[in-house]
């Protein structure tokens, strides 16, 4: 019997936990699994670290949460847990996740452009698409 798949709702819940991870607490895959167990899921039903790390959105959120304490060494950690502070921290984490995804996509696009340029006659793949709006006018 295999491990159950991570549903979209569970994925959002796990990402929310990662975005709200306390900066002073060490983040590991096992500590994440324990935090999920604390949410009410029995530990034997919590996904394995391999299953969690194979999900791209969770993996990116994990990398950002892991990087957060080191990313702002000069900024003191806020001790008050106001809603606004939590929202700002969550939005910063989301912005960093999107930036990481964008950087990966940009690197992939650059790689595809380079590979297409190496193909014989591949330069036509890099040309812009023709404008066909004139032919679509009634």
Overview of the molecule:
This protein has 138 residues and is mostly helical. It has six helices and no strands. The chain has one domain. The chain has helices at 8-19, 29-38, 49-54, 56-71, 83-118, 123-126. It is 61% helix and 0% strand. Helix 4 crosses helix 5 (83-118). It is elongated and about 60 Å long. The mean pLDDT is 80.
Chain-averaged pLDDT: 80
Question: Main sheet?
Answer: none
Helix percentage: 55-70%
Query: Helical region count?
Result: 6
Instruction: Tell me the structural class.
Output: mainly alpha
Task: Based on Cα principal axes, name the global outline.
Answer: elongated
Features:
138 residues; mainly alpha; 6 helices
List the helices and strands and how they pair.
Elements: H1 8-19, H2 29-38, H3 49-54, H4 56-71, H5 83-118, H6 123-126
Helix pairs in contact: 1-4, 4-5
